Amino acid sequence: MNDIKKLADILNATVILLNITTKEVSYLKKNTTNANEPITKFLLANINLLSNHRYQSLNYHLGHILTCQVTNELIICFSFDYSSLTSNSNELMMLHSLTNLRSISQIIYTLYHVSQAPDEDVIITQFSDQQIIKTETTQPFDATTFFNTETDIIKAIIYSHNDQLISALERLSCLKIIGERFASNNLIRGEKDTLISYIAVLNRAIIQWGYPTESAFQLHNELVQEIELTPRFLDFFQIIREMTWYYFKVVQNYRISNFLPLHQRIVKYVKEHITENMTLDDIAKDLNASKKTLNPAFKKEYNVTITQFIRQTKIDTAKELLIASDLTLLEISTLLSFSTTTYFVKTFKEITGLTPNYFRNHFFDHHLHL
Protein backbone atom coordinates (compact mmCIF):
# COMPACT_ATOMS: atom_id res chain seq x y z
CA MET A 1 0.00 0.00 0.00
CA ASN A 2 2.95 2.33 0.49
CA ASP A 3 3.61 2.18 -3.26
CA ILE A 4 0.02 3.15 -3.99
CA LYS A 5 0.29 6.06 -1.55
CA LYS A 6 3.39 7.31 -3.39
CA LEU A 7 1.55 7.14 -6.72
CA ALA A 8 -1.37 9.10 -5.21
CA ASP A 9 1.02 11.77 -3.92
CA ILE A 10 2.46 12.16 -7.41
CA LEU A 11 -1.03 12.57 -8.89
CA ASN A 12 -2.30 14.82 -6.05
CA ALA A 13 -5.03 12.34 -5.17
CA THR A 14 -6.54 11.12 -1.89
CA VAL A 15 -6.66 7.32 -1.52
CA ILE A 16 -9.86 5.82 -0.12
CA LEU A 17 -10.08 2.09 0.64
CA LEU A 18 -13.55 0.57 0.37
CA ASN A 19 -14.30 -2.86 1.81
CA ILE A 20 -17.18 -4.40 -0.16
CA THR A 21 -18.00 -7.04 2.46
CA THR A 22 -17.93 -4.97 5.65
CA LYS A 23 -18.85 -1.66 3.96
CA GLU A 24 -16.06 0.09 5.85
CA VAL A 25 -14.10 3.05 4.52
CA SER A 26 -10.52 3.96 5.45
CA TYR A 27 -7.77 6.28 4.19
CA LEU A 28 -4.09 5.66 3.51
CA LYS A 29 -3.31 9.06 5.06
CA LYS A 30 -4.26 9.19 8.73
CA ASN A 31 -4.68 12.98 8.74
CA THR A 32 -7.32 13.03 6.01
CA THR A 33 -9.96 15.61 6.95
CA ASN A 34 -13.72 15.30 7.18
CA ALA A 35 -13.98 17.13 3.86
CA ASN A 36 -14.08 13.70 2.21
CA GLU A 37 -17.14 12.60 4.20
CA PRO A 38 -19.64 13.31 1.35
CA ILE A 39 -17.45 11.25 -0.96
CA THR A 40 -17.33 8.28 1.41
CA LYS A 41 -21.11 8.44 1.90
CA PHE A 42 -21.55 8.35 -1.86
CA LEU A 43 -19.21 5.39 -2.23
CA LEU A 44 -21.04 3.42 0.46
CA ALA A 45 -24.45 4.27 -1.01
CA ASN A 46 -23.38 2.90 -4.40
CA ILE A 47 -21.12 0.05 -3.30
CA ASN A 48 -23.04 -2.59 -5.26
CA LEU A 49 -22.76 -0.61 -8.50
CA LEU A 50 -19.08 0.06 -7.93
CA SER A 51 -18.33 -3.64 -7.75
CA ASN A 52 -19.85 -4.25 -11.20
CA HIS A 53 -16.77 -3.03 -13.07
CA ARG A 54 -13.04 -3.34 -12.55
CA TYR A 55 -12.23 0.29 -13.41
CA GLN A 56 -14.59 3.26 -13.12
CA SER A 57 -14.33 7.05 -13.22
CA LEU A 58 -17.07 8.74 -11.19
CA ASN A 59 -17.66 12.41 -12.00
CA TYR A 60 -19.16 15.05 -9.73
CA HIS A 61 -19.28 18.83 -9.48
CA LEU A 62 -15.91 19.25 -7.72
CA GLY A 63 -13.84 16.51 -9.33
CA HIS A 64 -13.77 12.80 -10.04
CA ILE A 65 -13.00 9.49 -8.37
CA LEU A 66 -11.10 6.71 -10.11
CA THR A 67 -11.96 3.29 -8.68
CA CYS A 68 -10.08 0.03 -9.13
CA GLN A 69 -11.48 -3.21 -7.74
CA VAL A 70 -8.35 -5.15 -6.81
CA THR A 71 -10.02 -8.11 -5.04
CA ASN A 72 -13.52 -9.43 -4.43
CA GLU A 73 -13.53 -7.47 -1.16
CA LEU A 74 -11.44 -4.34 -1.80
CA ILE A 75 -11.90 -1.30 -4.04
CA ILE A 76 -9.10 1.30 -4.14
CA CYS A 77 -10.35 4.80 -4.93
CA PHE A 78 -8.27 7.78 -6.05
CA SER A 79 -10.20 10.98 -5.30
CA PHE A 80 -9.30 14.13 -7.28
CA ASP A 81 -10.75 17.35 -5.82
CA TYR A 82 -10.32 20.25 -8.25
CA SER A 83 -11.42 22.88 -5.73
CA SER A 84 -8.56 21.95 -3.38
CA LEU A 85 -5.82 22.61 -5.94
CA THR A 86 -3.14 24.85 -4.48
CA SER A 87 -0.31 26.87 -5.91
CA ASN A 88 1.90 23.84 -5.26
CA SER A 89 0.12 22.10 -8.13
CA ASN A 90 0.90 23.08 -11.69
CA GLU A 91 -1.23 22.88 -14.79
CA LEU A 92 1.06 20.34 -16.48
CA MET A 93 -0.57 17.55 -14.49
CA MET A 94 -4.13 18.74 -14.98
CA LEU A 95 -4.98 16.78 -18.09
CA HIS A 96 -3.02 13.63 -17.38
CA SER A 97 -5.16 12.17 -14.61
CA LEU A 98 -8.12 12.33 -17.00
CA THR A 99 -6.48 11.44 -20.31
CA ASN A 100 -4.72 8.42 -18.78
CA LEU A 101 -7.54 6.91 -16.70
CA ARG A 102 -7.00 3.44 -18.05
CA SER A 103 -3.24 3.34 -17.53
CA ILE A 104 -3.53 4.79 -14.01
CA SER A 105 -6.16 2.17 -13.13
CA GLN A 106 -3.86 -0.57 -14.37
CA ILE A 107 -0.93 0.89 -12.42
CA ILE A 108 -3.00 0.77 -9.21
CA TYR A 109 -3.90 -2.86 -9.87
CA THR A 110 -0.30 -3.77 -10.70
CA LEU A 111 1.08 -2.08 -7.59
CA TYR A 112 -1.36 -4.01 -5.41
CA HIS A 113 -0.84 -7.44 -6.97
CA VAL A 114 2.70 -7.04 -8.40
CA SER A 115 1.37 -8.67 -11.55
CA GLN A 116 -0.02 -7.58 -14.90
CA ALA A 117 -3.37 -5.78 -14.70
CA PRO A 118 -6.48 -6.87 -16.64
CA ASP A 119 -6.87 -5.05 -19.95
CA GLU A 120 -10.36 -3.63 -19.44
CA ASP A 121 -12.05 -0.35 -20.29
CA VAL A 122 -12.77 2.39 -17.75
CA ILE A 123 -16.49 2.98 -17.23
CA ILE A 124 -17.38 6.70 -17.08
CA THR A 125 -20.22 7.49 -14.66
CA GLN A 126 -21.86 10.72 -13.50
CA PHE A 127 -23.22 11.15 -9.99
CA SER A 128 -25.10 13.97 -8.32
CA ASP A 129 -24.68 15.71 -4.99
CA GLN A 130 -27.66 13.69 -3.76
CA GLN A 131 -25.23 10.76 -3.48
CA ILE A 132 -26.79 8.70 -6.25
CA ILE A 133 -25.43 7.70 -9.62
CA LYS A 134 -27.45 9.23 -12.41
CA THR A 135 -27.65 8.77 -16.14
CA GLU A 136 -26.00 11.65 -17.93
CA THR A 137 -28.45 13.52 -20.16
CA THR A 138 -27.64 16.34 -22.55
CA GLN A 139 -29.76 19.02 -24.15
CA PRO A 140 -29.35 20.17 -27.76
CA PHE A 141 -26.82 22.96 -28.10
CA ASP A 142 -28.30 26.42 -27.64
CA ALA A 143 -26.01 29.38 -28.31
CA THR A 144 -27.79 31.76 -25.93
CA THR A 145 -27.77 29.27 -23.06
CA PHE A 146 -24.12 28.48 -23.71
CA PHE A 147 -23.14 32.18 -23.77
CA ASN A 148 -25.07 32.96 -20.58
CA THR A 149 -23.59 29.96 -18.78
CA GLU A 150 -20.07 30.83 -19.92
CA THR A 151 -20.62 34.40 -18.64
CA ASP A 152 -21.71 33.04 -15.25
CA ILE A 153 -18.57 30.86 -15.14
CA ILE A 154 -16.36 33.90 -15.82
CA LYS A 155 -18.08 35.94 -13.10
CA ALA A 156 -17.68 33.09 -10.61
CA ILE A 157 -13.96 32.83 -11.42
CA ILE A 158 -13.09 36.52 -11.17
CA TYR A 159 -15.15 37.06 -8.01
CA SER A 160 -14.13 33.71 -6.43
CA HIS A 161 -17.74 32.56 -5.96
CA ASN A 162 -17.46 28.83 -5.29
CA ASP A 163 -21.17 27.93 -5.26
CA GLN A 164 -21.93 29.93 -8.40
CA LEU A 165 -19.16 28.11 -10.27
CA ILE A 166 -20.54 24.72 -9.22
CA SER A 167 -24.01 25.72 -10.42
CA ALA A 168 -22.79 27.09 -13.75
CA LEU A 169 -20.66 24.02 -14.48
CA GLU A 170 -23.63 21.79 -13.71
CA ARG A 171 -25.70 23.69 -16.29
CA LEU A 172 -22.88 23.52 -18.82
CA SER A 173 -22.60 19.74 -18.36
CA CYS A 174 -26.18 19.37 -19.61
CA LEU A 175 -25.42 21.02 -22.95
CA LYS A 176 -24.31 18.98 -25.93
CA ILE A 177 -21.22 21.08 -26.60
CA ILE A 178 -19.62 18.60 -28.99
CA GLY A 179 -21.63 17.21 -31.87
CA GLU A 180 -22.66 18.10 -35.39
CA ARG A 181 -21.37 21.66 -34.95
CA PHE A 182 -17.71 20.67 -34.68
CA ALA A 183 -15.70 18.58 -37.14
CA SER A 184 -18.25 15.82 -37.67
CA ASN A 185 -15.63 13.74 -39.49
CA ASN A 186 -13.01 14.26 -36.77
CA LEU A 187 -14.36 14.24 -33.22
CA ILE A 188 -11.00 14.68 -31.49
CA ARG A 189 -10.25 17.80 -33.57
CA GLY A 190 -13.64 19.22 -32.61
CA GLU A 191 -12.95 18.55 -28.93
CA LYS A 192 -9.52 20.17 -29.09
CA ASP A 193 -10.87 23.24 -30.91
CA THR A 194 -13.61 23.60 -28.30
CA LEU A 195 -11.16 23.36 -25.39
CA ILE A 196 -8.74 25.84 -26.96
CA SER A 197 -11.57 28.29 -27.62
CA TYR A 198 -12.85 27.88 -24.06
CA ILE A 199 -9.51 28.58 -22.36
CA ALA A 200 -8.98 31.58 -24.67
CA VAL A 201 -12.21 33.08 -23.30
CA LEU A 202 -11.15 32.38 -19.68
CA ASN A 203 -7.71 33.82 -20.36
CA ARG A 204 -9.05 37.10 -21.72
CA ALA A 205 -11.43 37.36 -18.77
CA ILE A 206 -8.74 37.04 -16.09
CA ILE A 207 -6.49 39.51 -17.93
CA GLN A 208 -9.30 42.07 -18.03
CA TRP A 209 -9.83 41.44 -14.31
CA GLY A 210 -6.19 42.27 -13.60
CA TYR A 211 -4.18 39.05 -13.76
CA PRO A 212 -0.68 39.67 -15.28
CA THR A 213 -0.93 39.42 -19.06
CA GLU A 214 2.38 37.61 -19.56
CA SER A 215 1.54 34.98 -16.93
CA ALA A 216 -1.93 34.50 -18.38
CA PHE A 217 -0.58 33.88 -21.87
CA GLN A 218 2.05 31.52 -20.50
CA LEU A 219 -0.74 29.54 -18.83
CA HIS A 220 -2.76 29.60 -22.06
CA ASN A 221 0.15 28.41 -24.22
CA GLU A 222 1.01 25.55 -21.86
CA LEU A 223 -2.59 24.32 -21.79
CA VAL A 224 -2.91 24.54 -25.58
CA GLN A 225 0.28 22.53 -25.97
CA GLU A 226 -1.02 19.89 -23.56
CA ILE A 227 -4.32 19.72 -25.43
CA GLU A 228 -2.60 19.31 -28.79
CA LEU A 229 -0.30 16.58 -27.47
CA THR A 230 -3.20 14.57 -26.05
CA PRO A 231 -4.22 11.75 -28.44
CA ARG A 232 -7.81 11.51 -27.15
CA PHE A 233 -10.08 12.57 -24.31
CA LEU A 234 -11.79 9.71 -22.52
CA ASP A 235 -13.97 12.08 -20.51
CA PHE A 236 -14.30 15.38 -22.36
CA PHE A 237 -16.45 17.42 -19.98
CA GLN A 238 -14.28 16.55 -16.99
CA ILE A 239 -11.40 18.21 -18.84
CA ILE A 240 -13.48 21.38 -19.08
CA ARG A 241 -14.43 21.12 -15.41
CA GLU A 242 -10.84 20.62 -14.25
CA MET A 243 -9.48 23.50 -16.35
CA THR A 244 -12.24 25.79 -15.06
CA TRP A 245 -11.40 25.01 -11.44
CA TYR A 246 -7.73 25.60 -12.18
CA TYR A 247 -8.48 29.11 -13.46
CA PHE A 248 -10.63 29.65 -10.38
CA LYS A 249 -7.69 28.78 -8.11
CA VAL A 250 -5.22 30.83 -10.18
CA VAL A 251 -7.26 33.97 -9.60
CA GLN A 252 -7.94 33.10 -5.97
CA ASN A 253 -4.25 32.47 -5.25
CA TYR A 254 -3.22 35.67 -7.04
CA ARG A 255 -5.43 37.67 -4.69
CA ILE A 256 -3.48 36.52 -1.64
CA SER A 257 0.01 36.21 -3.16
CA ASN A 258 1.08 39.75 -2.23
CA PHE A 259 0.54 38.95 1.44
CA LEU A 260 2.95 35.99 1.47
CA PRO A 261 6.53 36.21 2.84
CA LEU A 262 9.18 36.58 0.14
CA HIS A 263 10.47 32.99 0.34
CA GLN A 264 6.94 31.62 -0.10
CA ARG A 265 6.29 33.96 -3.02
CA ILE A 266 9.47 32.66 -4.67
CA VAL A 267 8.33 29.03 -4.27
CA LYS A 268 4.92 29.92 -5.67
CA TYR A 269 6.49 31.76 -8.61
CA VAL A 270 8.83 28.89 -9.49
CA LYS A 271 6.05 26.30 -9.43
CA GLU A 272 3.76 28.46 -11.55
CA HIS A 273 6.52 29.20 -14.11
CA ILE A 274 8.23 25.81 -14.07
CA THR A 275 8.02 25.45 -17.86
CA GLU A 276 10.02 28.65 -18.35
CA ASN A 277 13.76 29.29 -18.39
CA MET A 278 13.72 31.40 -15.19
CA THR A 279 16.47 33.76 -14.06
CA LEU A 280 16.88 35.68 -10.81
CA ASP A 281 16.33 38.87 -12.79
CA ASP A 282 12.95 37.54 -13.99
CA ILE A 283 11.89 36.54 -10.48
CA ALA A 284 12.99 39.85 -8.94
CA LYS A 285 11.16 41.85 -11.62
CA ASP A 286 7.90 39.90 -11.40
CA LEU A 287 7.89 39.86 -7.59
CA ASN A 288 8.87 43.53 -7.33
CA ALA A 289 11.80 42.55 -5.10
CA SER A 290 15.50 43.36 -5.02
CA LYS A 291 17.60 40.69 -6.72
CA LYS A 292 20.09 40.86 -3.84
CA THR A 293 17.42 39.87 -1.31
CA LEU A 294 16.14 36.78 -3.14
CA ASN A 295 18.75 34.12 -2.39
CA PRO A 296 19.45 35.16 1.23
CA ALA A 297 15.72 35.07 2.09
CA PHE A 298 15.25 31.77 0.28
CA LYS A 299 18.36 29.97 1.52
CA LYS A 300 17.69 31.01 5.13
CA GLU A 301 14.33 29.24 4.99
CA TYR A 302 15.06 26.20 2.77
CA ASN A 303 18.87 25.79 2.93
CA VAL A 304 19.18 25.66 -0.88
CA THR A 305 19.68 28.32 -3.53
CA ILE A 306 16.85 29.35 -5.85
CA THR A 307 18.70 27.84 -8.81
CA GLN A 308 19.01 24.49 -7.02
CA PHE A 309 15.31 24.63 -6.16
CA ILE A 310 14.37 25.34 -9.78
CA ARG A 311 16.42 22.36 -11.01
CA GLN A 312 14.91 20.07 -8.39
CA THR A 313 11.36 21.25 -9.12
CA LYS A 314 11.81 20.76 -12.87
CA ILE A 315 13.01 17.20 -12.28
CA ASP A 316 10.14 16.51 -9.85
CA THR A 317 7.73 17.69 -12.54
CA ALA A 318 9.53 15.55 -15.12
CA LYS A 319 9.03 12.51 -12.86
CA GLU A 320 5.30 13.18 -12.75
CA LEU A 321 5.13 13.50 -16.53
CA LEU A 322 7.20 10.35 -17.08
CA ILE A 323 4.79 8.35 -14.93
CA ALA A 324 1.41 9.88 -15.74
CA SER A 325 1.81 10.70 -19.45
CA ASP A 326 3.07 9.24 -22.70
CA LEU A 327 5.14 12.31 -23.60
CA THR A 328 8.54 11.59 -25.16
CA LEU A 329 11.79 12.79 -23.58
CA LEU A 330 12.04 15.46 -26.27
CA GLU A 331 8.51 16.70 -25.50
CA ILE A 332 9.17 16.75 -21.74
CA SER A 333 12.53 18.50 -22.07
CA THR A 334 10.98 21.09 -24.40
CA LEU A 335 7.98 21.57 -22.11
CA LEU A 336 10.29 22.24 -19.15
CA SER A 337 12.56 24.57 -21.15
CA PHE A 338 15.72 22.48 -21.08
CA SER A 339 18.08 23.65 -23.82
CA THR A 340 18.45 20.12 -25.22
CA THR A 341 17.19 16.64 -24.48
CA THR A 342 20.77 15.63 -23.69
CA TYR A 343 21.00 18.32 -21.01
CA PHE A 344 17.64 17.20 -19.59
CA VAL A 345 18.83 13.59 -19.34
CA LYS A 346 22.11 14.72 -17.74
CA THR A 347 20.33 16.88 -15.16
CA PHE A 348 17.81 14.14 -14.39
CA LYS A 349 20.61 11.62 -13.78
CA GLU A 350 22.60 14.07 -11.62
CA ILE A 351 19.62 14.59 -9.30
CA THR A 352 18.06 11.11 -9.25
CA GLY A 353 20.95 8.81 -10.14
CA LEU A 354 18.78 7.34 -12.93
CA THR A 355 18.13 8.15 -16.57
CA PRO A 356 14.57 9.27 -17.45
CA ASN A 357 13.95 6.14 -19.52
CA TYR A 358 15.16 3.87 -16.73
CA PHE A 359 12.97 5.73 -14.23
CA ARG A 360 9.92 5.32 -16.48
CA ASN A 361 10.54 1.68 -17.39
CA HIS A 362 11.44 0.53 -13.85
CA PHE A 363 9.00 2.65 -11.89
CA PHE A 364 7.35 -0.36 -10.26
CA ASP A 365 10.34 -2.48 -9.39
CA HIS A 366 12.82 0.25 -8.50
CA HIS A 367 11.71 3.78 -7.71
CA LEU A 368 8.65 3.00 -5.59
CA HIS A 369 10.72 0.78 -3.31
CA LEU A 370 13.50 3.28 -2.68
From TrEMBL:
Transferase keyword on record: no
Gene3D superfamilies, alphabetized: Homeodomain-like
Pfam families registered for this protein in UniProt: HTH_18
PROSITE patterns: HTH_ARAC_FAMILY_2
Domain named HTH araC/xylS-type: residues: 264-362
Keywords associated with the record: DNA-binding, Transcription, Transcription regulation
Entries under PANTHER family matching the protein: ARAC-FAMILY TRANSCRIPTIONAL REGULATOR, HTH-TYPE TRANSCRIPTIONAL ACTIVATOR RHAS
Protein name per UniProt: Helix-turn-helix transcriptional regulator
Taxonomic source organism: Leuconostoc aquikimchii
Source lineage: Bacteria, Bacillati, Bacillota, Bacilli, Lactobacillales
